[in-house]
Amino acid sequence: RQRQLATATSAALFVLAFASPLCAAGVALFSARSVHHLWIFVMCAPLLAFGWPTTARTPRPGVAAALFALVIWAWHVPVIYDGTLRAPWLYWLMQLLLLAAATYWWRAMRSPSPLGERLLALGATALQMGVLGALLSFSTRPWFDSHLATSAAFGLSALDDQRLGGVVMWVLGMLPVGIAMAWIARGFASASASNMPGAGRLP
Question: 20 to 30 Å CA-CA from 167: which of 34, 38, 85, 133?
Answer without folding.
Answer: 85
